[in-house]
Design brief:
The protein is of the alpha/beta class. The chain has a single domain, classed as P-loop containing nucleotide triphosphate hydrolases (Rossmann fold, 3-Layer(aba) Sandwich), CATH 3.40.50.300. Helix content is about 55%, strand content about 10%.
């Protein structure tokens, strides 16, 4: 590719977005970031990694709640908002270091001012997602459906609040790919083909 791209991946819970990201990372030989971002945020911000995990991709309500539950007061930012901003800063630093794959955490929005970002959203049929969750997490179909619905609501609230865009809507991304009948490796190939075509423009 002529241009060194940053690949961001938004995903429905259980759609295989992480598997797609890892396949893309392997094929391109570039770093992969998902929960790894939290480790780096902890190192650079001084915030406890457990605290970061408890606020990771949480909706706006959690940020407002933290304003009351946080030990910080006065002009100090609420803990939830501090976590959010710390993640954004780390994502920008990661992108500045070179080509990579970043899953979730509004990375597509954080990097919206860069012209070398390929923004993909991964989705699948509810039946496929439930099947994936049952197999991966060893839960019942009822539990999987509940987890799926809760995760989608949480991600929607988080993304829509902080980006002022709509999670999972076509105009928020470059590519929308249904993984119901296609492997993560094949999806990665589609994303790579798109980036190659775009790099020639």
């Amino acid at each position: 590719m002529d241009k060194k791209f940053i690949f961001t991946i938004g995903r429905q819970f259980g759609s295989g977005g992480i598997a797609v990201g890892k396949a893309l990372s392997t094929k391109l030989g570039v770093p992969f970031y998902d929960s790894e971002i939290l480790t780096r945020v902890a190192q650079e911000s001084g915030l406890c990694e457990e605290v970061l995990k408890s606020h990771d991709e949480k909706p706006a309500q959690s940020v407002f709640y933290s304003a009351w539950s946080s030990p910080f007061c006065g002009t100090e930012l609420p803990l939830g908002l501090k976590v959010f901003l710390a993640q954004f800063n780390v994502i920008k630093k990661i992108a500045a270091e070179g080509p990579c794959v970043i899953v979730g955490r509004c990375a597509d929005y954080v990097l919206k001012d860069l012209d070398n970002v390929v923004k993909t959203f991964i989705y699948a049929s509810p039946e496929t997602r439930i099947k994936n969750l049952v197999e991966k997490l060893n839960v019942t179909e009822k539990q999987a459906r509940s987890m799926m619905n809760k995760a989608d609501k949480t991600r929607t609230a988080y993304y829509n609040y902080f980006t002022e865009k709509e999670w999972g809507k076509p105009d928020s991304y470059d590519l929308m790919i249904d993984t119901t009948q296609i492997s993560p490796e094949a999806v990665a190939d589609i994303i790579i083909a798109y980036s190659k075509g775009r790099s020639t423009k």
